[in-house]
Amino acid sequence: MKASDRLWSLGSGLLAVGIAAGTWFGVISPDLQAAATARDDLAMVEQQNAIHQARITVLEESAAKLPQYEVELASLAEGIPAEAGYAEFMRQLEALAEETEVTLQSVTNSDAIAYVPPVQEAPAEPAEPADGSSDQAADPAAAPSEPSAPTPHTNPLINDQNFAALPFTISASGGTTELGEFMQQLQMGTRLASVTSTTLTAAVDDQPGTAEIVGYLYVFRSSLAGP
What gap in Å lies between CA 195 and CA 158, rounded to an integer? Predict the structure, then answer.
């Protein structure tokens, strides 16, 4: 092969390589990169669609239970209404007194006050011995443990901005057993009533017993004109 032919062959080979490289970097490589980006975008869209579908499923299940939720809400609204409802509460008390054979002497109520959530008190620290000695070596079974108070249940959604307490005082008379039944049923009635203190005088001979019951009703504050 002549020198000129070899040069021509070499030039042709370099030209072919250049064309191939230009095709790769100019056409094929961008297309591959675009395809990879499209695959990533498709995977992200599919993931988002799966999340949206899961939310839609939850909403559909909740919508199917809406009638059940409405019944539960109506039941809860009877216990904690959106208004004071003293008249309805009085009718419940009169029916309860008749059922338990108790006589209502008086029922008083006060203005609504802001609801204060219960607070769990911190346990008291054990007292140190006066002589500075440690009782760690003592038998732990020797000293009886104090029963701990139950932890009060609170909910951050219930606060003084949307909830109020209505103080009441009930005076009643009747037999000792009947008064006890009346107080128990009062806390289990349709209207949510929390009894905070009671003063009970037992019946003696012909004299009926008496009971003074102090407690709270609860109401949503949205419709109250008071605090």
Answer: 19
